[in-house]
Amino acid sequence: MAQFYKAKPNQGKKLSQKIALKVSRLDHLGAGIAEFDGKVVFVPGALPGETVEVQLTEQKKNFAHARLLKVSEASLHRQAPACPWYGKCGGCDLQHLSLEAQRDYKGAALADILGRGLGEPVSLTAPTLGGDGWHYRHRARLATLLDKDSSRLTLGFREESSKQVVAIEHCAVLAKSLSDLIAPFASVLGRLKGKTRLGHLELLDAANGLFAVLRVTAPLAQSDKKLLAAFADEAGVELLLQGNEGELEFLSQGSALPHYQLGDSLKDDSLKLEFAPGNFIQVNGEVNQAMVTQAIDWLDIQPGDRVLDLFCGVGNFSLPLAKHGAEVIGVEGVPEMVERARSNAAKNGLENVAFYCADLSADLAAEPWLGQIDKLLLDPARAGAYESLQWLKKMKPAKVLYVSCNPSSLGRDAVLLKDAGYRLTRLGLLDMFPQTHHSEGMALFELDN
């Protein structure tokens, strides 16, 4: 039987209508929430209490998405974004909201999500850990995009949910020392003969200087290396090339890896933690220091405590815990980071800490480190620690400190802790990423006797 194409009804008029809405609150991704025609409407860029004019862009049975066209009545908390690329670059999404209001919103969202998971009202019990709202990032990865027709190279950040790169000259949330490097780097990279071989550019402001890691998909010509080395020398940057297999080539005189410090940098006993390009570290050094200090306080670390640190990375929590006298076991799934953690422990003279490599989402029954402990610290990725918490009965910690970069997975995992006899005793917001909706939380669970 023949089938003939039949055009679908034109939904353009319905989707493009302009309507006025009253925004009631923000969702957990920072978008304004309003109601229209019995549906919840999500409006990115709108704030609670505002009357806005929007254009519907997508309609489903129970909800719709809309594009903000005009703010008719503005919130008292609305502010002018500091970045000229705000709304184009996919990095920040809350620059239009005052910093104080951002933290109020994030704290309320954290408590709401965790409360829903536990099935009971939850509130913050500690002051928010948050530093300066601007120039706080000490690490960033910039994308490159080459226009094949014009041979013009763009350096910047990607648009949200897009491969397009927004060319920027500076960044208001990046450390000033790194922000000032963006335009000069864009200029020198655009002069290279091997522009087709360039990948991302990673910028680092470490305790031992400025670093830049340029990803290359194939070796660069010596003339290009010479040009980059001269630029790095003039800019005071340690410049490394990173190949397809992760191999590093120093173009400048130095050969030391970057490191950050924990503790009083003016004292000789502060901890130094080295890391390699690609290793995970916290990009907000000020909040990270406060977070580690609070973790040790909440766990009430005593000499001889047996502490298990899962998802330990390069030792961000493990080493300070060991320095305070605990017997620490750190476990991480990335072999290279485990070796880096071991090296960091040795260089800091800590012998009361051991590191293991394990897939923490797999069966851990045969792992030599799995056994009874006094205290457990978890700092998982966004996916959370659901699989690891299945082994609570074997570990039997009196206290569990959960550091979360995703409140949703924390809310889910908290149910496992509750079912295992733990109750939430402390909760605090970690504002690692001001000017964005991203929030982190620290939750302490204690075993009921």
UniProtKB/TrEMBL annotation:
Binding site for S-adenosyl-L-methionine: 282, 311, 316, 332, 359, 379
PROSITE patterns registered for this protein in UniProt: SAM_MT_RNA_M5U, TRAM, TRMA_1
Substrates-to-products reaction catalysed: uridine(1939) in 23S rRNA + S-adenosyl-L-methionine = 5-methyluridine(1939) in 23S rRNA + S-adenosyl-L-homocysteine + H(+)
Pfam families in the cross-refs: TRAM, tRNA_U5-meth_tr
InterPro entries in UniProt: 23S_rRNA_MeTrfase_RlmD, MeTrfase_TrmA_AS, NA-bd_OB-fold, SAM-dependent_MTases_sf, TRAM_dom, U5_MeTrfase_fam
Domain TRAM: start-end pairs: 8-70
GO terms of molecular function: methyltransferase activity
One of the GO BP terms on file: methylation
Purpose of the protein: Catalyzes the formation of 5-methyl-uridine at position 1939 (m5U1939) in 23S rRNA.
Protein name listed in UniProt: 23S rRNA (uracil(1939)-C(5))-methyltransferase RlmD
